[in-house]
Design brief:
- The chain has about 325 residues and is an alpha/beta fold.
- It folds into two domains: about 5-45 and about 155-325, Rossmann fold (3-Layer(aba) Sandwich), CATH 3.40.50.1100; about 50-155, Rossmann fold (3-Layer(aba) Sandwich), CATH 3.40.50.
- The chain has helices at about 20-30, 50-60, 75-90, 105-115, 125-145, 160-180, 195-205, 225-240, 265-275, 285-300, and strands at about 20, 30-35, 65-70, 90-95, 120, 150, 185-190, 210-215, 250, 305-310.
- A six-stranded mixed beta sheet has the order 1-2-10-7-8-9, sandwiched between helices. It has a four-stranded parallel beta sheet with strand order 5-4-3-6, sandwiched between helices.
- Helix 3 (about 75-90) links the parallel strand 3 (about 65-70) and strand 4.
């Protein structure tokens, strides 16, 4: 099956811009840095999940879903974007989330409220616990005569992978139009679906840049193996060649104290990018990923030549949850 044969809803504003970060490049004295602006995908403050949801929600509608359910942390960007897309399509969003660590209605929880999402907090946190809790909620909805459709953590499954396989192609086409060769693409590694799609896109479309996944601590275990496993769900769907763990470089040095706990390096990266380029990153995902990129430049892991792309995956509402870290 070819990517264009899959059912798809056109939800994102594509292609997203690829902008040269000239001042940041000068400040860091490294290779030429580019920002791929997937924070500008259009719906609900933008973000990388909209690309995935174009395929996931097409499948949900084809199956007659009345409700879509998904899971995540209390401040999940994916859950909020899923709710926004569901509302646009006339489907009821149900979000099964971990309990908030902080009091008050802020960040994505505020946006979930404005969107009218049915938020249900799980008693246990963790990917498997949330998955089981979502299955219980889906069964309740079936018993009431509804047709629920469950979306995995981060939209990281076969259909979501296709969205980022095509993003890899889009990025390569933009680089070609600019007459430049991409050497590396850095992005925050949360649930793994974005990197899985990029790695699969490299394989399908014969691209040669390195995919670098900066771990933010959302999942445990062998990150490269997880990314390859998710990528190969997409490969099987499309009948494409498999991806191996060696097709992605995972950086584990910038997690800090843990997932959704801002790190000093991440906060510093957020400030530097904002003050150099007028672009906001977030403390949970993109700030830590940019800290990884900056760290690799300063340590000499990346040379001074070539072109490096930072994939800005969104997450802006998270800034307002951690305001005290910028005081």
């Amino acid at each position: 099956m070819k990517t264009e044969e899959l059912p798809r809803l056109r939800l994102a504003f594509l292609p997203t811009p690829l902008m040269k970060a000239e001042r940041l490049t000068r400040e860091l004295g490294g290779p030429t840095l580019w920002l791929k602006r997937d924070d500008l995908t259009g719906l609900a403050f933008g973000g990388n999940k909209i690309r995935k949801l174009e395929f996931i929600m097409a499948d949900a509608l084809a199956k007659g879903a009345t409700h879509v359910l998904t899971i995540g942390g209390a401040q999940s960007n994916h859950a909020m974007q899923t709710a926004a897309v569901a509302r646009r399509l006339g489907v009821a969003p149900v979000l099964v989330l971990g309990k908030p660590r902080r009091p008050g209605l802020c960040g994505n929880l505020l946006l979930d409220k404005i969107l009218g999402a049915d938020v249900r907090f799980a008693t246990e946190y963790g990917a498997e616990a949330l998955k089981k809790a979502m299955a219980v909620e889906a069964e309740k909805l079936r018993a009431e005569g509804h047709k629920p459709y469950c979306i995995p953590l981060g939209g990281s499954g076969a259909l979501g992978v296709v969205g980022y396989a095509l993003a890899a192609k889009e990025l390569a086409e933009q680089a070609h139009a600019l007459g430049m060769k991409i050497d590396r693409v850095y992005a925050a590694f949360g649930s793994g679906g974005t990197h899985a799609g990029l790695a699969l896109g490299k394989k399908i479309f014969g691209l040669d840049f390195e995919v670098v996944a900066v771990n933010v601590g959302a999942v445990r275990g062998d990150g490269a193996a997880l990314i390859a496993e998710i990528a190969n769900e997409g490969a099987d769907l499309l009948g494409a060649a498999h991806v191996s763990a060696g097709d992605v470089t995972v950086v584990n040095d910038y997690v800090g104290e843990g997932y959704a706990i801002p790190s000093p390096e991440g906060i510093a990266a957020i400030k530097q990018v904002a003050q150099a380029e007028g672009i906001f990153l977030d403390p949970v995902y993109t700030g830590k990923a940019m800290a990884g990129l900056i760290g690799d430049i300063r340590s000499g892991k990346i040379g001074k030549n070539g072109n490096v792309v930072f994939l800005h995956t969104g997450g802006g509402p998270g800034l307002f949850v951690f305001a005290e870290h910028f005081a």
